[in-house]
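Thread: quick sanity check before group meeting

JM: Hey all, I'm pulling together slides for Thursday and realized we never actually wrote out the predicted structure for the chain we discussed last week. Dropping the sequence here so it's in one place. If anyone has concerns about the input, flag it before I start.
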Amino acid sequence: MTEPTPRHRIFFAELKRRGILKMAALYGAVAFGVLQGADIILPSLGLPERALTFVVVIALLGFPVAIALAWTYELTGRGVKPEEPVSTDELEEIAAEPRRTRWLAGAVALAFVVLMVGSGWLILARGPGDAPRAGAAAASSAARVVVLPFTVRGSGEHEYLGEGMVDVLSRKLDVAGELRSVDPRAVLALVSREGGDVPGPEQGRAIARRLDADYFVLGSVLEVGGQLQLDASLYDTEGGVEVIEATAAGGAEDVFGLVDDVATQLLLRAGAGHGGPVARIAAVTTDSLSALKDYLQGERALRGGRYLEAADAFQRAVAVDSSFALAWYRLSVAYEWLTRDNLVAQSAEQAFRHSARLAERDRRLFEATVSARVGDPVQAAQQYRAIVGSYPDDVEAWFQLGEVLFHYGPTEGRSIAQSREAFERVLSYEPGHVNSIIHLARIAAVEGDMQELDSLVDRFLAVSPDADRAVELRVLRAIVTGDSIEWGRTAPDLERVSDPVLLVTAAYVPVIALDLEAGHTLTGFLMTENRAPGMRALGHLFRGYLNATQGRLSDAAAEVEAAARFDAYRAAEFGAFFSLLPFVPATEDELLSMRRRIEALDPSAAPPTTHPSGYIRAHDDVHPQVRAFLLGLLSARLGDEVTAERYADELQGMESPERSPSFAEDLALGVRAYVAWSQGAPAAGLALLERARLQSFYQNGFRSPLFSGSLQRYLRAMFLEGEGRLDDALRWYGSFEQISMYDFVFLAHSHLRRAEIYERLGDLDGARRHYARFVELWADPDPELRSSVERAQERLASLSPDR
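JM (edit): ok, ran it. Output follows.
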């Protein structure tokens, strides 16, 4: 009598027949490959740890799902079909196969499943922060060291070395590659919070632990009769005991050589130098004592928000040592806050040019900064994220990441609030970082968080009451909170502040507060008789754009004529924009008159701008491109498409300025897209605008609607709406609120278009909200625009919940 086949062999045969073993082997192999690739690629892109965890969890959870589907369904030549019952004889036949045949498939399946599960377990078991990152292997394995302020005794001439050693010695140790210095700014900020005194061993250990460092350095500088002695001690954070001593003595004129000797001793005795030569301090900072002093003065001024003072100090530093990369970099930052955008990119490029001998950390920072300064926010954000992935305490990288997210996001309809996390990370390391407080206060204002705004402004004023931007924040708070008492105290200061402070306050506070009446008030301070002609012209142009935002085109034209009394060339360039708004009617005579006016402009005869601010120099190096763009658009609006295309071709052959590498090319695409709009061809227009790179330093967009691409963005939204891509259209219609007053001219109609889209989508709350905002903005428009307001009022009334 034949013995029955064991049940486990029947079960195994069933697994094989249903393809479970093949599925297990295939899934395990593919999942293993995916996990290995994700473990390498995701960290290199600067993505957070949770992204890799998510991939692992999905891969592991997907395995039982795949097995269940394989059990239930069968893959055939005609597709997938449910499994059908099978005869016992078929299973017996599979079970009777030779042992080697039976078990080979199972062994292969088991091997790949084990590889998959083991790989996933290893990744998850590593814990946060242990994932390998491209370019960060050395940083992740290096011990972290905190350099604390040194005690200085003797002549006051060398007092600067107290804090200066934190910066200089930190960068020196970082260059060695075996030690990883905690950001000096985070160190100084924490020391300041602890009372500002030079710490002793116990306090040093507490500070190092709070900064998650393995070691900390304490030291002293003694000056006697023109001779210096530097002493430094390296302590183990865990035990707090001194583990290494270093000392150097010599003439005061050789301070860099002394610091170099101290750093060399620390590195060699810690086993970090491997007996090889250590690069001199000149390789990481400067070999000029005078330049270093100026640099440290600039740093203190920049930390206090005194940008003009900082720029002057950094200028002195690079004048003495033109290869001083760190001074060039910080000069670029100071120029940015002074709105001198023509010098921002130049200084950043100088920093990168002279950064070859710096630590990898600084080189990567400078490279990212160049990307941001030439208007490549995607690349810059990736680079900054990679840096903070390698160096989580890098204050500057976190701050610059926030800058990129804050200033570039709104051009694609993303709120400035997306930058909050980066600025909050900065404050976690450096609570008195005034520039981060400014940005967070602006975010609070946009979100209407009065309590947070009030707290941040108080915090700013407590940290640096004499900072350049103190007036800006006081004005912002007064306007957003409606505090007439604070406005009364602050307004007189606007008559006395420097041009850079007044320009930013008048140009940007109304944008952040989204308050047009405040804009009218603030622009008046630009037009006072004690201000330069360029400032007075700008005040009239800003007020003209505010009038246009409210549908008062006749008042806008009057302001343009007033601006022409101070700067006729710029008034013509900026004034022509009103005739080109897609939602504003313009007669043929008006368009022809405007075209003749622009044709009469001679770029070579444009008067030079003597004012240093980018707000006034906006078009200085692009007058030919601006003229061709405006003439192309005016020709298209007149139906003269041949001439419009000729101007587009002319633009295509023009050069772009360094601060906006794709400017001429983007303007050419804008003219052709405007032609497509006039022809009613949304698909063609959208295809053109999707080719635009829009690569421009963000400050350019504050200065001119041609650099911000506001017309192209509005056309893009209309084209997307015409193509039925309503969600994308809503995002682009939402890109006119947090950039500049020049973009405000599209604001009211962007609300009207969004209201109509929300109504189509059945979102009546959204429709009512945007109809109401449009009606509010165009409460008193010119007579020829009133009909659109009346239609919006009718739609708003029909959508009322009471009806």
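AS: nice. The CA atoms of residues 615 and 703 lie 5 Å apart. Residues 99-126 form the longest helix (28 residues).
JM: adding both to the slides.
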